[in-house]
Automatic annotation (TrEMBL):
Residues 1-30 form the signal peptide. Pfam families: DUF6268. Residues 202-279 form the DUF6268 domain. It comes from Hymenobacter koreensis. Keywords: Signal. This is DUF6268 domain-containing protein.
Length: 378
């Protein structure tokens, strides 16, 4: 019985694992986003064991020769040193706050699974979990916004579906829809109606050569803090054996330097936006000059937090094993907004205007590449 079980189970286990780990190949056709995210994963390089077959190479993709290895499972940790926080009330009934943030850290975990992998149509499902934490030098007792954040952190749990459609040898398009739960929720306080956030995008592009691909499209998302639609220009180009550019303007522009097939350097900027719902422990009432509640308004039980930041960054990626890569990044963060808005009353008025001092940051990342499939087969 044991021999029979091993005969049946061992090939099945190998088949399941190989297919599960093969999903980074699909990402070579998906969206370009800032570090820590994987759409699109780059085109196959000499060290990428999931290079497409000759038939697949006839279909256009947004990736170009020279881009780094495809990213699969991603573990990312980012930390900033102490910086100044100043919050000013924009309505009566709310006080000001000023202190130093001793800690601002982010943990990001992402993974992707293929639903369909044909040369002319690919479907990729992704999941992600993110947590941002703050600790303030002066504990923000009785200051609702930061008291909640320090105790519970800001969390995002999401899932997405990407449709990658190579049309022919020149044209391609991408459609992606993503749903997330974003806020300071705990498992017992989770509510879809309160925390759900939806974003999507569509890009149509042209593959002019193996070294040059570009596209135009629209994005609906929270890059600039609130949900909005804005145009997007994708531009991937490799100029020679060393230099290239990878961009999804205006959200990200990055210059690439290929020191070797196993070592790449990047420099550029990215714009990151976040939108969280903060549950208040105590109701917050907007009051007028006479100290009475403003006419036509009701007490606030939640706040909408809109965060936008610009990062000027340098990044290094290096392989540790055939399938495991390390990403190290340093840079400077400029915080454009960390503002809280009324999401209860119809005027959606800004309640708190916060200013974060600029600060350096550093991050470390480990990610698995398709080379693990080859390692498993050996």
């Amino acid at each position: 019985m044991t021999a029979l079980f091993a005969t049946f189970f061992t090939p099945l286990r190998r088949f399941a694992l190989v297919n599960l780990l093969a999903w980074p190949t699909l990402l070579a056709h998906a969206q370009v986003t800032p570090p820590g995210q994987v759409f699109p994963a780059p085109a196959a390089t000499p060290t990428d064991t999931t290079a497409a077959s000759a038939d697949e190479q006839e279909f256009a993709t947004p990736s170009v020769i020279g881009m780094g290895p495809s990213k699969g499972l991603v573990l990312h940790y980012e930390r900033m040193p102490r910086f100044r926080v100043t919050s000013e009330a924009q309505v009566s009934g709310v006080r000001n706050y000023a202190s130093d943030a001793d800690k601002n850290a982010r943990l990001i975990i992402k993974g992707y699974v293929p639903l369909l992998n044909n040369p002319h149509l690919k479907l990729v499902m992704g999941i992600n979990y993110e947590r941002e934490e703050f600790q303030f030098r002066t504990r923000p007792i009785d200051y609702e916004l930061y008291e909640n954040i320090e105790d519970k952190g800001l969390k995002t749990l999401g899932a997405q579906l990407a449709v990658i459609r190579p049309v022919n040898e020149v044209n391609w398009y991408i459609f992606r829809v993503k749903g997330e739960l974003s806020g300071d929720y705990t498992s017992s306080a989770l509510g879809l109606r309160d925390y759900v956030r939806v974003s999507s995008e569509f890009l149509y592009g042209w593959k002019r050569s193996p070294q040059f691909s570009w596209g135009l499209g629209l994005q609906l998302g929270y890059t600039f803090g609130r949900q909005s639609i804005y145009p997007a220009l994708l531009y991937n180009r490799t100029f020679n054996s060393r230099w290239g550019v990878e961009a999804l303007f205006p959200a990200r522009v990055t210059m690439r330097y290929n020191a070797s097939p196993k070592s790449l350097f990047y420099v550029g900027y990215s714009v990151d936006g976040f939108n969280y719902i903060i549950k208040l422990r105590r109701e917050l009432m907007r009051v007028g000059q006479n100290g009475q509640p403003e006419p036509g308004t009701v007490a606030l039980r939640t706040l909408e937090l809109r965060e936008t930041e610009v990062k000027f960054r340098g990044r290094w990626e290096r392989d540790l094993l055939d399938f495991l890569w390390l990403g190290a990044e340093v840079g400077y963060r400029y915080n454009y907004a960390f503002d809280a808005f009324d999401r209860t009353n119809a005027d959606r008025e800004k309640i708190i205007d916060s200013k974060f001092a600029g600060a350096p940051y550093a991050s470390l990342e480990l990610f698995i590449t398709p080379a693990i499939v080859k390692a498993f087969k050996r």
